[in-house]
Amino acid sequence: MHVNDKRSACKAERDGREAEGKHAENKHAPVDPDGLTEQEFLADYKKQEWPKPSLTSDACIVREGDGGLEILLIRRGRHPFLGLWALPGGFVEQGETAYDAAVRELAEETGVHEGELSLVGFYSSPGRDPRGWTASAAYATIVKDPIATHAGDDAAD
Question: What is the DSSP string of 114-154?
Answer without folding.
Answer: -S--EEEEEE--TTSSTTS-EEEEEEEEEESS-------TT
